[in-house]
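User: Sequence recovery, please. Input:
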């Protein structure tokens, strides 16, 4: 009888645990993003981030983004990359442009895990905007536009967070609608 009760309790805990786990996943690019996977292992499944994944591979940043972190990644969609001037992505993916590609990609990354609530709190503290130092050494500013978080880059370009708080085992991803760029 004790074995049956133990089995029933274990089964119930397993079901509750898996339901809780399922609730923490988010869909990005038609794929579930699992909090138990790292940034790279999730991103490769998003059909909306194939350009970003190709760029991360070309820049040699896969191992970095698979490491413990934590990182906050502002992940531009394929559509965001398509908004860049014609030929920009192809040029950046060339081996001779690896340093520039790395600088642009790491400009989309913050050291540490910043949820949308953390970013909103910093915006409130900063009385309308918050400044963040990127992994590339540049600065990004965040502000609220209604209920949306909007980033402003060093060139005055902006990007809206379209999907926030996609938790990963080594940080968080916020999907953005434009590529942000460091001072040119």
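Assistant: Recovered sequence (184 residues):
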């Amino acid at each position: 009888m004790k074995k049956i009760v133990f089995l029933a309790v274990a089964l119930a805990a397993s079901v509750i645990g898996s339901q809780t786990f399922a609730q923490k996943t988010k869909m990005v690019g038609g794929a579930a993003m699992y909090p138990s996977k790292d940034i790279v292992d999730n991103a490769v499944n998003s059909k909306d981030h194939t350009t970003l994944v190709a760029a991360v591979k070309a820049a040699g940043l896969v191992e970095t983004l698979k490491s413990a972190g934590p990182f906050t990644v502002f992940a531009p969609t394929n559509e965001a990359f398509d908004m860049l001037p014609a030929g920009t992505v192809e040029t950046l993916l060339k081996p001779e442009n690896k340093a520039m590609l790395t600088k642009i990609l790491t400009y989309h990354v913050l050291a540490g895990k910043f949820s949308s609530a953390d970013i909103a709190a910093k915006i409130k503290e900063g009385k309308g905007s918050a400044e963040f130092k990127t992994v590339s050494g540049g600065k990004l500013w965040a502000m609220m536009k209604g209920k949306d978080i909007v980033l402003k880059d060093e060139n005055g370009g902006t990007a809206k967070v379209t999907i926030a708080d996609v938790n990963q085992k080594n940080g968080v991803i916020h999907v953005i609608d434009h590529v942000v760029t460091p001072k040119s």
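The CA atoms of residues 2 and 101 lie 61 Å apart.
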